[in-house]
Amino acid sequence: MSEEILLSVKGVNKRFGGLQALSEVGIEVEKGHIYGLIGPNGAGKTTFFNVITGLYTPDSGSFTLGGKPYSPRAVHEVAKAGIARTFQNIRLFPDMTALENVMVGRHVRSKSGVWGAILKLPSFKREEAGIRDLAMALLEYVGISKYANYQARTLSYGDQRRLEIARALATDPLLLALDEPAAGMNATEKVMLRQLLEKISGEGKTILLIEHDVKLVMGLCDKVSVLDYGKLIAQGAPDSVQRDPKVIEAYLGTAH
Predict the structure, then answer these.
(1) Which of 110, 143, 172 is the last residue of a domain?
(2) What sequence ranges are listed for the domain ABC transporter (predicted)?
């Protein structure tokens, strides 16, 4: 029985002036799995990630999410379609509390609207109480509920990463897209991150990540794609990918 494909991306091309950043790149991410995208510096993985999540407009390519065509032409459209992302450079609201940051994430799915908020209608108050409860539950889920009322900027680096993931989860995404989630983490924080991502995946969420830490990717992901100079050079299970001569050459050079 074949796995259900949640995200399908085919034939993506992207050029910046004279530079062909992506050439006919495509991936298929299976539902409930962790999918890794790796490659040397300048390989095009961040560009590809930004295309999928609506930050860059592709020159060509087709996209389906949950079996339905979608067009990643704007960030808000991508969020509405069901993709939530984090960034390599943490983008929290630093002066808001951890709880408020997660509540902001959930407001993407709120129903009361602007007038409900302005007029403080009963429906708005009920929904806001529900959002607060959910945000608190998500802080508990990622292991930082004790910092709920701390300003985001006062949290440790690793806890800020966890807060970003909680805020992304608050949108109830079909796909959680993580941009270098282990960047800047120490060894202990990386172990805790891996445990959290395994927990999220184990509960049925689908994760797509780009990551420089190849060891983390190979130990965490079900499937890996490797980009080099904007082209897909390998794709498959981590064991087979790390033995692929093209991958070894891309990372180590032919002398090795």
Answers:
(1) 172
(2) 7-254
